[in-house]
Structures are given as C-alpha cells and as structure tokens.
Automatic annotation (TrEMBL):
This is Glucose-1-phosphate adenylyltransferase. GO terms for biological process: glycogen biosynthetic process. The gene is glgC. Involved in the biosynthesis of ADP-glucose, a building block required for the elongation reactions to produce glycogen. Catalyzes the reaction between ATP and alpha-D-glucose 1-phosphate (G1P) to produce pyrophosphate and ADP-Glc. It catalyses: alpha-D-glucose 1-phosphate + ATP + H(+) = ADP-alpha-D-glucose + diphosphate.
Length: 421
C-alpha cells in the first residue's frame, strides 16, 4: 500500500468523468427541454457547474462530460463556458454525447456511459478517475478524497453523506466497519439500514467514485460481458467490488469546502421542484447556507456580457425596489417590488407588479400589476398584465403545476393556454 503523501497533487494525474445524461423527471416541466444538469441555478449558473467547478478548483484538468437526454442546452452551455482548458497545457475538456461508440445502443446505465468512452479515457491515460454526478449542488475538494483512496489502497472510494434514515430510500446505502471499509451496499432500499448506534441516520452514497483507471477498465469490461447486468455503478459495479474487493467510504464532511460564512455541511439534491425552489430561495437569506460569493472556491460558469441591473421610477406606489433578493445582470425593475426572490439574467418587471419568494429564470417578462407568490417561472415566460399566481390554490392547480408544498411552476405552454393576448 502506498505510504505517505505524494509531493505532486494526485489531481494532476486524474480525470473527472461527469455523468450528465439524466432527465430528472421529478423537476417536472423544468426538464421538458433540458437535462437536469442544465437547469439554471443561483442567478447565473447551471447545476452542472458545481461538479465542474469542484474539479477545476481541486486541480483536475482533464474532464469528460457524458450527455444523453435533450442535451442541446447543456452542450451549448459547456461549449460557451467551459472551453478554456488547453491541450498544450495537458488539459482537456470533452463533451461525450451518446454516440454508439462501441455498440449500437445508447448509454444503458451510468457504468455503460463510461464503458462506451473507454477509448477516449485510454488516450489520456490518467492514473486515477473520479466519477461524478452532474446534478447536485455542493462544494468539495476532490484532492482530499483522492489522497484517502491512495492511502487506503482501495479498489473504489465512495463519497458518502449522513442523512435521515428514510430519506436514504433514494440513495445507495452502505454499512462500514471501524476503518471505513464498506461491508455492504444496497441500492435504493425500501427500508434503509441505519448507522450502528444511530437508528435515525443512514450512510448514503453521493454518486462520487474514485478508481485507479486500469482497475475500473477491467471492471467495466467484466460488467459489459455479463448479460444480466443493468450497467449501473450503484446496482452492479459497486456491489461487486464490495463483495470481492476493497471498497472504502469517504465522508463528505472531511472534504467539504466552506467559507467563514458557511456554518453547515452543504449538499443538495435539487431533484424536485420544491427542493429546487427552496435551494434558490435560501440564497436570499442574509447569511445563506451556501456561500456563492466565496472567491477562494469560485463557481465557474458561462458569463454572459450584460449591462447592470436597473431600478427605475420613484413615485408613491410605483417604485422599483427589491428586499432580500438576488438580481442578475440585464434585469430592469420598472416600478415593481420584489421580496425574497431571485431573478436570473434579463428579467423585466413592469410597474405595480409584485414578486414574493419567486424564482424567475432568464429573459422572463412580468407584466404590469401582476402578483406572483412562491413560484418558479421558466425561461422566457411572459406573465400577462394583472395575472395573479400563488394566492388561490384551486385556481393555481387548474392553470399551472402546483406542488404539494404550494409552489407553482409556470411555463410558456401554461400561459398560452390562458388565452391571453
């Protein structure tokens, strides 16, 4: 087993492979036109920017992104915002759509997405590979996890979270011994086992895996030859290694990146409309749980060239103003008011309108006198003058998508059905 810390960061000899092909159907109409990793977040970013920024900030300079479901929006974002890596500096950034490279099938599962790109990975010859999900919001230093992988001599190291036991039904759940070696792994169990001595808590997989590249290639080829495999890391690859090899857990709390302003270990699966809305609204807190202003660990993204946000009119009852809100570039608040809301790029809010706990995606138009409460407005929606959203639950449910927590999701098609001119 290797001993001691290497002089050079392990990340220099590592490739990050981001799985970004999923639809994310629990986000409802937000993923009708885009994959979940391409969904907007935090005013100017996309969800995938967090995994990619973690890789860059951790020192990883070889990255591949596997795409599949409705990938155009995602691919366009990656081409615009992530094309700064340079091959002459031994850096690379590959967008890897499902293209039937080694078979006549699309990506059959998470493991198959990597298997079908083995030739590309071999060309770069990284010593280690980090497999990442592209649809979670968090800040993490992967170098720390890589160091643990080397120090333990693990076949696979799995990033893990401590979560309330019954929330673990949506995750892979693991048992560990006193040395953090994984002794059992269950994918999305109906009755998740608890951590010993902590009956209300389970140890859940984050979908982050570290392997030596040659070992992973052997495992993927073995799995591809198994006609009974579902070609999935959580269902097939990881359980096999747990049973026949050495699998170790890496606690997210050991490598989470926090600024002085962040008091909690922050990780969010924003995979439902309610969770997505809440995570965005949380950013409007005076001291939010996620510090997106941390210059020591920036969230890189495609930065559009936009004019500053603008607030106009200063008359009684018609004053452009915002309270506890985030306003992106190219927004014009023209005699309207917003509270605890987040506006993405290019939003126009007309006079006498009112937004409260609203998440408004890019290039929306809020009409004169409209009132919007506890809502997500999809990109490019034009809210008609005087329309009220979020005050009448029964009417909202007839017109829009209303969640069990009372959040309204509004799309262009829903507005078109109202027959406004």
């Amino acid at each position: 087993m290797p001993e001691g810390r290497r002089i050079a960061p392990i990340s220099r000899d590592t490739m990050a492979f981001v799985l970004a092909g999923g639809r994310g159907s629990r986000l409802l109409e937000l993923t009708d036109r885009r994959a979940k990793p391409a969904v907007y977040f935090g005013g100017k970013s996309r969800i995938i920017d967090f995994a990619l920024s973690n890789a860059i900030n951790s020192g990883i300079r070889r990255i591949g992104v596997a795409t599949q479901y409705k990938a155009h929006s995602l691919i366009r974002h990656l081409q615009r915002g992530w094309n700064f890596l340079r091959p002459e500096r031994n850096e690379s950034f590959d967008i890897l759509p499902a293209s039937q490279l080694v078979s006549e099938e699309w990506y059959a599962g998470t493991a198959d997405a990597v298997y079908q790109n083995l030739g590309i990975i071999e060309d770069y010859a990284p010593h280690y590979i980090v497999i990442l999900a592209g649809d979670h919001v968090y800040k993490m230093d992967y170098e720390i996890m890589l160091q643990q992988h080397v120090d333990t001599g693990a076949d696979v190291t799995i990033g893990c979270l401590e979560v309330p036991r019954m929330e673990a039904v949506a995750f892979g759940v693991m048992h560990v011994d006193g040395d953090d070696r994984i002794t059992d792994f269950l994918e999305k169990p109906a009755d998740p086992p608890s951590i010993p001595g902590r009956p209300d808590t389970a140890l859940a997989s984050m979908g982050i895996y570290v392997f030596e590249t040659n070992f992973l290639m052997d495992q993927l080829r073995r799995d591809a030859a198994d006609p009974h495999s579902s070609r999935d890391f959580g269902k097939d690859i990881v359980p096999h290694i747990v049973k026949h090899g050495n699998a170790y857990a890496h606690y997210f709390s050991r490598s989470v990146v926090r600024s002085a302003a962040e008091s909690e270990v922050y990780w969010r699966d924003v995979g439902t409309a309610d969770a997505y809305w809440q995570a965005n609204i949380d950013l409007t807190d005076v001291v939010p749980p996620l510090d997106i202003y941390d210059r020591d660990w920036p969230i890189w993204t495609y930065a559009e060239i936009t004019p500053p946000a603008k607030f106009v009119h200063d008359e009684e009852g018609r004053r452009g103003q915002a309270f506890s809100s985030l306003i992106s570039g190219d927004c014009i608040i023209s005699g309207g008011t917003l509270r605890k809301s987040l506006l993405f790029t290019g939003v126009r809010q007309r006079s006498y309108s009112y937004l409260d706990h609203a998440v408004v995606l890019p290039y929306c138009h809020v009409g004169r006198g409209a009132r919007i409460h506890h809502a997500i407005i999809d990109r490019g929606v034009h809210i008609p003058d005087g329309l009220v959203i979020g005050e009448d639950p029964e009417l909202d449910a007839q017109r829009f998508r209303r969640t069990s927590n009372g959040v309204c999701l509004v799309t262009k098609e829903m507005i078109d059905r109202l027959n406004y001119r």
